[in-house]
Amino acid sequence: MRSKKVFPSFIWVVYILLFAFSIPWYFPKEMEMDLFLGLPLWLIISISIIIIIALFTILVIHKYWKAES
Hints:
Shape: elongated
Strand content: 5-15%
Helix content: 55-70%
Oligomer: single chain
Order of helices and strands: HEEH
Mean pLDDT: 84
Number of helices: 2
Structural class: mainly alpha
Number of strands: 2
């Protein structure tokens, strides 16, 4: 018995990449406390990527989620 594939594999890769970039572990030490509009740059980037994750989730649900009738 084989399970039915609901979403294409690339969706999981995109999620992993987005979540990896939402945590600013890749920032050099000197950029740690740079400010943008009075907020740390890492916070702006994290919030922006979380918004992108939410929009991507909406796209995936809209395009690939089939309603069972």
